[in-house]
Amino acid sequence: MSEPLAIYVHLPWCVRKCPYCDFNSHVRPETLPEQEYVAALLADLDGDLDLALGRPVASVFLGGGTPSLFGTGAIAALLDGLAARLRFLPDAEITLEANPGTVEHGRFAGYAEAGVNRVSLGAQSFDAERLRVLGRIHGPDEIGAAVAELADAGIANFNLDLMYALPGQTRDAAAADLEAAIALRPAHLSHYQLTLEPGTLFHHRPPPLPDDDLAWQMQLDSQQRLAAAGFAQYEVSAYARPDRQCRHNLNYWRFGDYLGIGAGAHGKVTVGGQVLRTEKARSPRAYLEAGGRAGSRRAVPATELPFEYMLNVLRLMEGFSAIDFELATALSAETVRPTLADLATRGLVESIADHCRPTALGFRFLNDLVAAFLPGEKCRFPPPRVVHSGISPRAGEGLS
Q1: Which of 54, 147, 186, 319 is deepest in the core (most CB within 10 A)?
Q2: Which pTM does this prediction carry?
C-alpha cells in the first residue's frame, strides 16, 4: 500500500495579532468569509490532487491563525469536502487549533460531530499578567472552561501549548504554569521557550526576558516534572502520554509527505523520487481573489535535501537511521556521514543501536547543529547561540 499523506489546512485570521507571532496570521475582517474561504480551500486541494497519487490520508491539521473562529458548519463543510476528494484512513487524526478566548459554548461538540477528534489549545500561560503581556485575548479561567467543554464533547485527546521564559517570568512562576497545565490532564503538551522572531513586535521592541541560564533551568525543571507526571518527551518541545504523540507532527519531523492548502500554506510531496515543495499565496485577499489557485511548486535540489531532512528529523528523540535518510531523500547516507562524524567527535550527536540522534548538548544547541548541513557549509560547528527549544515549533503546534 502507498505511504499515507497528511494534510495541513491554514485558516489565517485571528482576533488580533500577538506581539511574538511570526506566523501568517491576520486580524479578522468584520465579517469572516467562511463559505468563500472553504470553497477556495477545496479548489486549492483540487489543484494538488495530482500530487496525492491515490494515497490515503492519515492526518489533517487545521492551523492558523485561529481556526476556532470558524463556525462548526464551515469546519464540517471543509472536512466533508476533503473526505469527498481523498480516502481517509479509518483512524485518521483530525486536529483543530483553538484559542480558549474564541470557544463558544457547545462549539467543540459541533466540531466533534464534523469529524475533529483532537484539539490543540493555545494556553501559553496560566498567569493573567503574562497573558496580558503576550497580547492574548483569554484569561486563565477560560483555559479551564475550554477543557471542560472538550470533556463535554467527548474529546479526550487534546494538547496544551505552553511557553516558558516569558517576560518577567521567574523560575517558580514557570513551574506554577506547568503544574496548572498538568492539572487539566492533557494528553499532550507542547512546551517551548518564547523566542523573539524577526518581523514581530517583540523583535523590534524586546521585552525583558529571563537570561539563557535561567531559561535553561526552566527547561530542565519542566523535563523532570513532565517525566514524573507520565509524559514522555519525543521531540524538542513535545511531550505526550502513552500513544498520544501527535501523528501529524511526527509525519513532519520524519520528513513525511503532506499537502498544504490555504493562504501561505506549504506542502512537501515526493513524486517519482523527486521531493517537491508547494507554496500558496500568502495574502488572504490574494488567495481568495484567485479562488485558492494561486501558488507555486519547486523541486528541491539534491544539495538542499540533507539540510531539509536534518532540520526536521534532528528534532526527534528517536533520531534516524541511514536507511531512513536514504528512503526519504533518495541520497546515499555517505552524503552526510562526514558531517555526522565531525559532530560526533564534538559530542553533539551519538549513535544508539543503528540510530543517530543529538546528544543532550546537541539538543541544547540544535539550531547550530542543523546549520552544519546547510549547502556549502564546511564540516564545522560555530559558537553556540541559542538553547535548543528556541528552534521554531512550526510546522506543527505552538504559538496559536
Answers
A1: 186
A2: 0.93
Q: Which CATH number fits domain 5-252: 3.40.50.2000, 3.30.360.10, 3.20.20.70, 3.30.300.30?
A: 3.20.20.70
* Residue spans per domain, the chain: 5-252, 305-390
CA–CA distances in Å: residue 75 to residues 27, 41, 78: 20, 11, 5
235-273 pLDDT, tens digit per residue, is: 999 999 999 999 999 999 999 999 999 999 999 999 988
Q: What pLDDT, in 10s, does the model give residues 90-124?
A: 999 999 999 998 887 789 999 999 999 999 999 99
What are the distances in angstroms from CA 37 to CA 26, 33, 83, 378?
14, 6, 17, 46
Q: What is the mean pLDDT of the chain?
A: 92
CATH of domain 305-390: 1.10.10
